[in-house]
Design goal:
- The structure is a single chain.
- The protein has 8 helices and 6 strands, in the order E-E-H-H-H-H-H-E-E-E-H-E-H-H.
- By secondary structure, it is an alpha+beta fold.
- The strands form 2 sheets. Strands 3-4-5-6 form a 4-stranded mixed beta sheet. The protein has a two-stranded antiparallel sheet with strand order 1-2.
- A hairpin with a 2-residue loop joins strand 3 and strand 4.
- Helix 1 packs across helix 4.
Length: 205
């Protein structure tokens, strides 16, 4: 996020783009390759206050996963932000972030399930059978042995499809029920939520 003083700079964004200006403390900015930008904690805070929750969580998850941002830095930022604009919203978003997530769709699905009232899923869970590694699944409810796997465009590749099928067979053999999600489920998740809910209730019964 590029940093500038809102009192000195006026920016008109292109049509459909919302420009937000806010004061910055000296500690909120740094310089990289001659460009003044906000530090990761400030960038994460602005994302949390301005973006929709699933999108914000996905972006901050990526920052944590890449090592650009540390959970301790987020905790310190929250502790020092009492009374700031949209602080409650930021705290809600930051309470959902998880650096184990490995892709934005995975993060968005995890938040979508939580907002739908489902139990929290475990990102990148390792499935084992008799102590031996079987697979690592995108989202898991280990007690119920239910997993959700996000299938991006590369899963349509024939070689990848073969690997996916072998992997799925191994998971089923280990007693897991695997539900697959695609990009369309990010925009219309109702059917997917119902399928996961039914699977969790069925396994519990």
């Amino acid at each position: 996020m590029v940093a500038a003083s809102p009192r000195l700079v006026h920016v008109d964004g292109p049509r459909g783009v919302l420009i937000h200006q806010t004061p910055l403390d000296r500690a909120d900015v740094t310089s990289v390759a001659g460009l003044t930008i906000t530090v990761p904690t400030r960038s994460a805070w602005d994302i949390a206050t301005l973006e929709q929750t699933p999108v914000a969580v996905a972006a901050i998850d990526a920052m944590l996963h890449s090592g650009v941002l540390h959970p301790r830095d987020l905790a310190n930022r929250i502790a020092l932000s009492g009374g700031l604009w949209r602080v409650s919203r930021a705290r809600d978003v930051l309470s959902l972030v998880d650096g184990r997530s490995e892709s934005p769709p995975e993060s968005q699905l995890r938040v979508t399930f939580l907002q739908a009232g489902l139990p929290a899923a475990v990102p990148q869970h390792e499935v084992r059978k008799n102590g031996l590694f079987v697979a690592r699944v995108d989202l898991a409810w280990p007690a119920a042995r239910v997993a959700v796997e996000y299938d991006g465009a590369h899963h349509a590749d024939p070689m990848q499809m073969r690997r996916d099928r072998r992997r799925l067979n191994a998971l089923v053999d280990a007693g897991w029920l695997v539900i697959h999600a695609t990009a369309s489920d990010l925009y219309a998740p109702g059917t997917l939520i119902a399928q996961v809910s039914a699977a969790l209730h069925g396994r519990a019964a």
